[in-house]
Amino acid sequence: MKPGSPDYMRELLSLAADGRVALDGKAAAYLVWGAAKTQLRSSEPELQRVVPLVFEHIDTMRANDMSSLIWGMGLLGIKPSSEQRGQLRNGLLPLLAQDSEGAMRMKDLTATAVGVSRLGLPTDIVASLVEAFEHRITSGAPVSLGEATRLVKVLPYLPGLTPSSPLPLAVFDCLLTNAHSPGAKLHSLADMAFAAGKMGCCFNGADVERLLSCAADKLGQNRGPQVHALLHGLGLMGLRASEQGPVTNEFVSECVDSQLTTQQQPQHMARLVSAVGALRAALPEDRLQRMLEELSANGLASLPEWQEEGQQQQEEAQEQHQQQEEEEATQQQQ
Questions:
Q1: Among 248, 288, 251, 241, which Cα is nearest to 269's?
Q2: What pTM value is reported for the model?
Q3: What is the per-residue DSSP string for 265-301?
């Protein structure tokens, strides 16, 4: 049995549940983290038996242990009971304190944010987490590319953040600064566009051009959802396609070509059609014909749903974008 395999984790969970493995805070957190890493399901009988035992050791968990536990619970979809929520709160809040001994590092905060965004924990926990991030950022702690790649996925789901909050500004700056590096991936750029759109952020022209330039260079990384997610995010930012740009019809056409040459599930094409329509892109007739052929071959049932949802989101984003432009114009006049 290979260490780190799903069967290995099931055996380890079974031993722990039967009391044949000594547990402390670190070992208990590892059980949940390891189950998530090996992609077990929350319904696994061994895991359900172990979770109550894990919470018996929560008082001895350090920063890395707590972040591993919350990350694992979030990915597994383990919803804590009311009592367990209280235990998580009491264990986590001291580790988020800005100057406490053993406080969480950026890596720990990032893993915690991923878990918290999926668990629906109380607002005071989320507020303390955001405060901890922003204290470390304003104190000079850098956000690495790996951390930014993970954080950008959860920014829209952390209540209390605004477009001017230090955390999204630091994450977006890191991703844009490193956008041309090999470590920057197309999915991260798509996640950034989506997060910016959902949060009502307005990038300046230079940042939009950098985002689009880097995305164009990385279209070969598309595996299905990345391109339509990118175009959807650009639409949420209030952008529209044109001949002059910054989002040009040519760029949208290149994205469509990337999608058409990628083996995909039917819903990806339906979402792409919705995103292209929301951007009001003028595509060559042959591209439109191929997109319709793909939809026809795979079934059109999912298209109306995505069109309706996408249109509503785009209208909301456009209205928000216009309001921000008016506010900026007023501030400049003053």
A1: 288
A2: 0.80
A3: -HHHHHHHHHHHHHHT----HHHHHHHHHHHHHH-ST
